[in-house]
Amino acid sequence: MQGFHLMKDIQHISSDLFARLAQDDEEAFTQIVHFFYKKMLPVAISLVRSETIARDIMQDVFLKLWLNRALMTTIENPAAWLHVVVSNTTSNYIRAQLRYDLRVKNSMADTPDTAEIWTDVDARFTQSLIDEAIGELPAKRKLIFLLSRREGLSRKEIATRLSISENTVRNQLTDALQFIQEHLKSKGVFFIPSMILLQNWLQ
Question: Domain RNA polymerase sigma factor 70 region 4 type, which positions (predicted)?
C-alpha cells in the first residue's frame, strides 16, 4: 500500500522538469532531487533498516539520474523509472549485504567483538579503494576532485582558483565520481560513501 501511494504521489512532479534535466538544467535537477529524496528516503530506510545506508543508496540513485539525464526525453514515465532505479539499487544492496554477511559468518569466529572489528576493517578497505581510484584519476580531474571533497570548495571557488569554467568543474567531478563508483563496484563495493557524493554538487 505504501508503494501504491508513493507511485501515485510522484506522478505529480512535472514531466517538464525531466525535459529540462535532459538539457543539463541544474535547477531542474535540484528540484527533482529535493522532491524524490523527501518521498523515497523513508522507503529505502524501511527496506535496509539503516538511515545511513539509505542515504548512500539515494546518493547513488541521483548520480545515476545525472549520468543518464540525456535519456529522460526518451523515457515515457521518468518518475516511474526513477522509482524502479531506487527499488533495484536497494535490492542490489540487500543481496550484496547478504553475501557479505555469509562470508563473514563463514570466515570468522563468533566472538563479541567480531562485528565491530569487521566493520572497521571493511571501512578501511573501502577507503583504501577510494584512495586507489583517486590516485588513478588524470591530474586535472584529481585536483578538482580533491579541492571539492577534501577542501570543501564550491564549484565556483574551484573554477576561480583554476581559471576554468564552472561547467568544466562540474563535468570533471561527474567523471571522477563515475570512475570511483565503477572502481569500487569492480572490487565488490556497491556504494560510494555519501560524504564524497553530492557534497558541494549543487553549489
Answer: 129-178
